[in-house]
Amino acid sequence: MTTTRIAVLGAGANGASIGADLARAGEDVVLIEQWPEHVEAMRRHGARIEMPEVTLTQPVRVQHLCEVATLREPFDVVLLVNKAYDTRWSCHLIAPLLKPDGLLAGVQNGMTVDAIAEVVGPQRTIGCVIEISSMMFDPGVVQRHSGHARSWFAVGGVHPSTRGREEEIARLLRHSGSVEIVDDIRSTKWMKLVSNATTLVTTAILGLPMKQAVLLPGMRDLMIRSGREALDTGRALGHRILPIFGLTAAELGRTDRLVEQLLDTLLAGFVLPDTKTTVLQDWMKGRHSEVDDLNGLVAREGRRHGVATPVNDAVVEIARRIERGELEPDADNIALLKKLSGRGA
Fold it and tell me: Could you tell me if 245 and 262 are in contact, meaning their C-beta atoms sit under 8 angstroms apart?
């Protein structure tokens, strides 16, 4: 049997965990990462993945980002597991090393699939939705809060030539969790954006883990309103309402409670009490977040299509103040969120 050569481009919390799963399964995989200390820690000690059920330490092959130019053998599959705002340059970086009939799967949040297709071609593009809850603060160490049984992916192509080839990506991702193959990956990714607009930046501006933030008076209502705005914007864009997180259409229930169902499913099945969102982790590390690709995208598309998005607008405004250093992530920001979104202080 021919060996599949795999690159995991972006080996942060999720990428290192997926890469470790692939290596443990005996796949021919190399991790490519831009944090030098993290690369060196994994080279010395392997990738340490701390899960609620078990802690695993897996030897992995890993390259610094600057070493990509030294690689010679092309890859059959590239799993792109980095920030949405890093998508385009990452695709340009790895495109010369992707086989002409290879596949690049964007295992990311955000609506990145078309940016990938523009760089490597739609015939080599697979879209992907990821739901893994994890954190990383120390080099070489991932705190993965959703183990293999509670991690979920969806994959789908954007071009007729990839029909049937989704399984090539699904097979690999099954080492990390359950996988669904979908026929409308853009709509499925927008449904994940609805969930992300409900939770990621919205709770991060309070500086609290997700399960603590949702308990503050009025916060759950604001989160649900943010998600509903994203859902309405998606409808205006022509996206279908589809089940995610392993739910069925019947389980998703009534459309008017769809956002609540997604939120409750996420809180019950994928996050722990101390799980901090990727956005809050970025701010704790002094990094730029994906706000412009999440709530910011909802706000922009809402304006373009005449959909009011006051909560998303407020979330973006507060997030930008935090990233400019004018505010800190803090629970007191809930009063500002209420004020800016029109719900008073």
Answer: yes
